[in-house]
Design a protein that fits this description.
Length: 432
Amino acid sequence: MNYPDVAPSAGTILIIDDIPNNLRLLSDLLTKAGYTVRKVTNGEIGIESALLEPPDLILLDIKMPGIDGYEVCDRLKDSERTRQIPVIFLSALDDEAEKVMAFHAGGVDYIPKPFQVVEVLARIETHLKLSRLQQQLQQQNAQLQLEIEQRNSAETALAILNQGLEARIQQRTAELQAENKQLLRLQTELQTALAQEQLRSELKSRWITALTEKFRTPLTVIPSVVELLKQAPDCSDDWSRHLHSLTDHTQAMKQTLQDMLLLLDADAGQLAFTPLALDLTQFCQQLAEQWLLPSQPEYKLVFVQFGQPPETILLDPTLLRPMCSHLLANAVRYSPTGGTILFELVYEANQVLIRIQDEGIGIPPDEQEKVFQRFYRARNSGMVAETAVGLGLAVVKQAVEQHGGRISVRSGIDRGSTFTVALPLSPPTQPD
């Protein structure tokens, strides 16, 4: 029998059924389809297994000795650890009353026995996709809420620094509160449209574009106001520190909006790619100087070139700049004070390598492929006090792919990280 194609990382499924034949049948079916399967024969053990290591989805028999499937589902939904796991009920009775009880208990679907292979696989895949979309939406909502809180903090800081701006800040705060309510309404709309993936994508695109337009002017004005306040005769050292912090947070918010727009254009297939003849050595040297002189005097940067550049190198500077900037930002962010950052440019026959190495905290081996995902941060990144949101390396990867290149990372805990970008000297006119 042919099974639908499922990715190797399709997910883990916990089967709770007291009938060995059912367990064997479902386990063989799902394993062949690419899923990781765990099996238990009663409800108590099933609850313990789910709490110990939550699966991605649970197949739950209704009629079992001891506690039945309804009680198992009730107890799973009572726990914060297992509440969001989708539960599909299994029953030998195709009874409407049982179906109603299953949905009241918190189940997402109901499959009668005997099983239809195609139906079982289709329903499992559908609910796994819905669950993953829900998790992604919750992460995005949490990130957006964090940005709102940071923006409110910045507005409050302005009010403390200059009473003469109090009236304007109060007016702006009222506008932000109204915008926050609008954001909450948009989040609710996104949640209700979760099953309609195309509509969800369109709403997200509109929201990000509107967000950028709304805050472009305030984020541009704040640095100008800060510079004026710094020049005030009564500006103390304490005020200067607050103003410097405000400038840093404003710049971080602007960079986040720019990154979100770039990724949004990439998702829509509208990211511009315009390769130009470029002096790459000079470009990289100037970029390194902008990053570390004089804004980061506590770090040492060593720039090294190997090989001779060809007469013509075609690269897109509008994508190359954020790519290199984010890699340098990561190196600075996670390096110890006084650390050395190595910036290498290696010219080869058909490609150029851009390699940035730091002496920082490193990346756990099992997370090195994940760091290029959007909003993903390694579990040890919390050891460093910084405001990164997990978009920088996603932007780097997108810029590299636009050039038809590749990116890799070599790292170890407390051994630093080395990011290597390989770009073809003549990238495709229309990248994949």
